[in-house]
Specification:
Shape: globular
CATH class of the largest domain: Alpha Beta
Number of strands: 21
CATH architecture of the largest domain: 2-Layer Sandwich
Mean pLDDT: 97
Number of helices: 9
Number of domains: 3
Distance between the termini: 36 Å
Strand order of the largest sheet: 6-7-12-10-11
Largest sheet: 5 strands, antiparallel
Strand content: 25-35%
Order of helices and strands: EEHEEEEEHEEEEHHEHHEEHEEHEEEHEE
Structural class: alpha+beta
Helix content: 25-40%
Bound molecules: uridine-diphosphate-2(N-acetylglucosaminyl) butyric acid
CATH topology of the largest domain: Uridine Diphospho-n-acetylenolpyruvylglucosamine Reductase, domain 3
């Protein structure tokens, strides 16, 4: 095990925040993970699990052991006529994995192409786009349970997947994900219900074309983190009651909305931010992207403090105009490597 000190995490987080970790280790398999965890215990350090860094907000200094997950590998566990079950290392890149499934004629994940990050983080916030959420294709998640001090497998049902949510968000310090077990279809069942996806796919009803159209739509709206550092959607789309929805729409009837199975209504945060005047607007080095107001961009060498100043200003303006409190989507860490509430 090779523990490094004072490691700059800027290259490892897609918002490009400068952040120095007092202790850092790269982990390539489960036994290295156990070694890293016992080192942290001996040294009385908290641990911070670093995956693709595409959904995190890091402070300038972190006194903790940063464990950078790099477990690779894809293994077939079993298959029948309808589906194939595969186990994928937490450190595999998400987008490359999606492309690989399409090449292998395995279906389900095509709508989730081009999402930044690694496979191991995909169940945490149940990544979703264009009418599909990853939880629909996960059979189980292999984790190290820090409470029970053992490796275990959590079934999809026990993961409690919901919109941008899972048990991994309820108990963020408890589990370290090492493998994700997917059950993918052998026959294409294209999901074309979202927005103008059906039109974009047209007559060419293949999984590969669906994947390509999703890639094109994302590229046309969402900034490439290499050019404009960002963490994707910065806020969740608020889910509100029918009563609150009725109140807002008397004043703002054009508000884009999506009725949920439980009778609540999901509303478009991007539209609220746009209408509040923040689309393409900056406060110092940080601003909301001109083609999609839901994405916050670090245009220069901003720190966490600069990012917070901008997103709090956006929250204030949306609250003043619509009486809606926007909830940030990325996970905020404190200086000892623990997850912190955005409202503290
Ligand atoms: N809108 C505006 N102005 C904007 C942005 C959006 O008016 O600046 C309107 C759009 O016209 C549309 C509605 O808001 O009517 C929704 O916009 P869009 O379809 O672009 O999707 P979204 O709700 O902004 C969500 C996910 C994205 C995902 C897309 C497609 C969340 C928080 N975001 O965005 O996920 O790619 O749908 O499924 O649920 C991510 O999580 O990082 C992410 C990019």
């Amino acid at each position: 095990m090779h523990i490094q000190n004072n490691v700059q995490l800027q290259p490892f987080n897609t918002l490009n925040l400068g952040s120095v970790a007092s202790h850092y280790v790269k982990v390539e398999n489960e036994s290295m993970l156990l070694d890293a965890l016992s080192y942290a215990e001996q040294q009385q350090l908290n641990i911070l699990i670093l995956s693709g860094g595409s959904n995190m907000l890091l402070p300038e200094q972190i006194h903790a052991l940063v464990i950078h997950m790099d477990i690779q590998g894809i293994e077939t566990l079993n298959e029948d006529d309808a589906s194939k079950t595969i186990s994928v290392g937490a450190g595999q890149g998400w987008h490359d994995f999606v492309l690989w499934t399409t090449e292998q004629h395995l279906y389900g994940l095509q709508n989730l192409a081009l999402i930044p990050g690694l496979v191991g983080a995909s169940p945490v916030q149940n990544i979703g786009a264009y009418g599909v959420e990853v939880g629909e294709f996960i059979r189980s998640v292999r984790v190290y349970d820090r409470k029970l001090k053992q490796f275990t497998e959590i079934t999809a049902q026990d993961c409690h997947f919901a919109y941008r949510h899972s048990i991994f968000k309820d108990e963020p310090e408890r589990y370290v994900i090492s493998q994700v077990i997917f059950q993918l279809l052998k026959h294409a069942d294209l999901k074309l219900n979202y927005g103008d996806l059906k039109q974009a796919v047209g007559e060419n009803l293949t999984a590969k074309n669906l994947q390509n159209q999703v890639i094109q739509i994302r590229q046309s709206k969402l900034p490439d983190p290499k050019e404009f550092p960002n963490v994707g959607s910065f806020f969740k789309n608020p889910v509100i009651s029918q009563q609150s929805f009725d109140q807002i729409t008397t004043k703002f009837p054009q508000l884009p909305h999506y009725p949920q199975a439980n009778g609540q209504i999901k509303i478009a945060a991007g539209w609220l931010i746009d209408q509040a005047g923040w689309k393409g607007k900056r406060l110092g080095m940080v601003g909301m992207f001109a083609k999609q107001a839901l994405v916050l961009v670090n245009y220069e060498q901003a720190t966490l403090t600069d990012v917070q100043a901008t997103y709090r200003a956006v929250q204030q303006d949306v609250l003043a105009k619509f009486n809606i409190a926007l909830e940030p989507e990325p996970v905020l860490f404190n200086t000892v490597g623990l997850i912190q509430s955005h409202t503290e």
